[in-house]
């Protein structure tokens, strides 16, 4: 409760006191790992996550959080191993499936990534991050087929409806899907909606990227 309420220093002291009496307390070890992760002290955070795994090799939470840390520190192959272990302990866990998909995406392995995004949506049909990533991958795949493009449009529209058309990342993906099926007028309109939202969010890098997409759509070209 201390950690959740933002009292990080107090939480750190509490968990350390717990470990003095019970060195194998997975909750305390994971709690300290989380605290140091929040502080971006990834080396110490990893130490506590691995200690938690040593204390209980069947702890889903410890393997999952280690996977997040490894992904954050760009050790993608190792993060995949951690997420796969987490999934063996809790088969079909949507968040582990999603993180595994993102790791494969970051390695450029879109087909593997899409498989995990689809598994997420089987469990949580409204998981908008998985919806967005799957929509984008289908819309911008080098080799396109009609079924995937239609599905990309469906997913993009679903994601935007779920977020009330207020998330520029989803709008950008939907615009790419529209362009992929030749609906350039809709792509331009949707892309401009995304840009208006970005101005409010002040995300300069995203603004530049989506502006490039808009220029493609205005020229009658899809994203690749």
Description:
The protein is mainly alpha-helical and 224 residues long. It has a domain at 149-224: Serine Threonine Protein Phosphatase 5, Tetratricopeptide repeat (Alpha Horseshoe). Helices cover 76% and strands 0% of the residues. The protein has twelve helices and no strands. The protein has helices spanning 8-21, 26-38, 42-55, 60-72, 76-89, 94-106, 110-123, 128-139, 146-162, 168-180, 184-201, 204-218. The longest helix has 18 residues, at 184-201. It is elongated and about 65 Å long. The mean pLDDT is 94.
Instruction: Count every beta strand, where a strand is a DSSP E run of 2 or more residues.
Output: 0
CATH fold name of the domain at 149-224: Serine Threonine Protein Phosphatase 5, Tetratricopeptide repeat
Approximately how much helix is present in the residues?
A: over 70%
Give the C-level CATH assignment of the domain at 149-224: Mainly Alpha
Could you say which overall geometry the principal axes of the C-alpha atoms support?
A: elongated
Number of helices: 12
Secondary structure category: mainly alpha
**Rg estimate, integer Å:** 21 Å
Which consecutive residue ranges, at least 5 long each, have pLDDT under 50?
A: none
- Overall mean pLDDT stands at 94
Tell me briefly what this model is:
By secondary structure, this protein is mainly alpha-helical. It has helices spanning 8-21, 26-38, 42-55, 60-72, 76-89, 94-106, 110-123, 128-139, 146-162, 168-180, 184-201, 204-218.
Draw up the topology in text.
Blueprint: H1 8-21, H2 26-38, H3 42-55, H4 60-72, H5 76-89, H6 94-106, H7 110-123, H8 128-139, H9 146-162, H10 168-180, H11 184-201, H12 204-218
């Amino acid at each position: 409760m201390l950690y959740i309420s933002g009292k990080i220093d107090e939480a750190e002291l509490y968990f350390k006191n717990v470990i003095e009496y019970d060195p194998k307390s997975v909750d305390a070890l994971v709690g300290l790992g989380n605290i140091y992760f929040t502080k971006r002290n990834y080396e110490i955070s990893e130490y506590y996550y691995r200690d938690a795994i040593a204390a209980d090799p069947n702890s889903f939470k410890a393997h999952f959080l280690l996977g997040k840390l490894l992904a954050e520190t760009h050790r993608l192959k190792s993060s995949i191993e951690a997420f796969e272990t987490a999934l063996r302990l809790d088969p079909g866990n949507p968040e582990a499936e999603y993180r595994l998909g993102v790791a494969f995406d970051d390695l450029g392995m879109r087909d593997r990534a899409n498989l995990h995004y689809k598994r997420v949506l089987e469990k949580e049909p409204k998981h908008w991050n998985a919806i967005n990533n799957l929509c984008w991958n289908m819309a911008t795949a080098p080799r396109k087929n009609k079924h995937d493009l239609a599905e990309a449009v469906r997913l993009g529209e679903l994601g935007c409806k779920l977020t009330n058309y207020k998330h520029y990342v989803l709008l950008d993906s939907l615009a790419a899907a529209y362009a992929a099926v030749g609906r350039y007028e809709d792509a331009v309109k949707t892309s401009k909606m995304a840009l208006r939202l970005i101005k409010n969010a002040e995300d300069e890098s995203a603004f530049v990227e989506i502006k490039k997409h808009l220029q493609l759509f205005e020229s009658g070209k899809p994203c690749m």
